[in-house]
Amino acid sequence: MSAPTATHLDRHDTIRAVTYADGVLRLLDQRELPFTEAQVECRNAGDVAKAIRDLVVRGAPAIGIAAAWGVVLQAGLLDNAGHPISAVTLRSTFDTLNAARPTAVNLAWALARMRAALAATGGDPLTTLTVEARAIQDEDLAANRRMGEIGASFLGDGIGVLTHCNTGSLATAGFGTALGVIRAGYAGGRIAQVYAGETRPWLQGARLTMWELVRDAIPAKLIADSAASHLMKSGAVQWVIVGADRIAANGDTANKIGTYQLAISAKRHGVRFMVVAPWSTVDMATKGGDDIEIELRDPAELLSISGRRTVVDGADAWNPVFDVTSAELIDVIVTERGAIEKPFDRGLAKLAGAQG
Fold it and tell me: Which residues are the active-site residues?
């Protein structure tokens, strides 16, 4: 199949979840999708941190982008004397934002870039920080387009793919990571059918991924998370394509809870497994998956659906948000710097060294 043109790709890339203009950050409220397209307006770093914690914005790249703009919002405020906030005062903002979600490395990565920009500024911090935040967002969109092209080149023709959680425009600056590969693959005629797991307990696959796929006219079917192994056994799926919240130096990958069991089932049924994430998700300082902190959220999220309790009073729950898929279960890792196949530790180190 020939590579899809920009026009073909644009037909399947119509969503932007994070937008900044005139001192206001507007976030498409992902808690309200798919039935209501509501915007949450943030005017300071505290607003952004709360939006990240409350899952108004989610997805590792989008969280990092939102946090970068949170720094910009804070830099644009005035102190009690009516003066612009100083660089020294602004530094506490980074801690507030960094504490919002611990697992997604993109958050710390984006804030490190903003911190470096602040340290290097010789003039107006607001201007410098605005330029840097815009660069982070624009680079992510370009990286997603590049990853879509690279990842789609591994696929056959007319295949079925399974994805998990939401890795599309809602989770990034646009186009998406794993969903970007799916967008590029469909535009190029390589993908005939997409299957999306519902992704309990927040139902990101059902609410968000299906919304994106239907909106962008990509053929998709929703499955219960527990139907994935049966689907793979049927032969309908040739690739599982997922995103990542953190990739360790050895290729172990943290992603939305449920990814690990998909990888195990894929290995059993001869289905190939692709992880797609920007280089900012690669954490060469983390040696392996055992060193990745796994976020635990309120058990109440598992005991109810849309705020309505579904489990008997007095019941308890265990609610990890992520799990770690070991490198041995992954076939290829795709970043905007290139694709890496086993051995991942060598390939990741090579890309890290080549790019400085």
Answer: 245
